[in-house]
Amino acid sequence: MNITIKTFDELTIYELHDLLQLRSEVFVVEQDCVYQDIDGKDAKALHIIGTKENRVVAYTRCFPPGYYFDQAAIGRVVVDANERKFGYGHDIMKASKKAIKNRFETEEIKLSAQTYLIKFYESHGFHQVGEGYLEDGIPHVAMIIT
After folding, report:
1. ∠ CA 101-102-105 to the nearest 5 degrees?
2. Are 50 and 58 in contact (CB under 8 A)?
3. From its phi and psi, is residue 29 left (phi > 0), alpha (psi between -120 and 50) or beta?
4. What pLDDT shows up at residue 28?
């Protein structure tokens, strides 16, 4: 998998289409969750895109401290269902943490994790803070690296 890091303005229309399609495939169709994915925040995000054979197979969007949370943020963590067995989720998370350190000059990161992925995020140094909550009808928990 090749990983590229782009601002919104650097995305091609094809990349934007493909990353939105992947997010929709996983978060709306696979997880059967109706929610407003296009939320107006993509223009302010740093986009971490994993491609394989010219297809977007993994993705996150990252924000500087103070935009989403007090800390930098990682969101929309997604890997194509057919590509998960290759560990691309770990690769895209490592690249996201590195991009935040390089672009935003911080290692403090917060994210909103679906609860079934707590161990995955713990393997990347995150720990749970606070109580669980529902986000778009799916159990989540806040997790941070400080």
Report:
1. 55
2. yes
3. alpha
4. 81
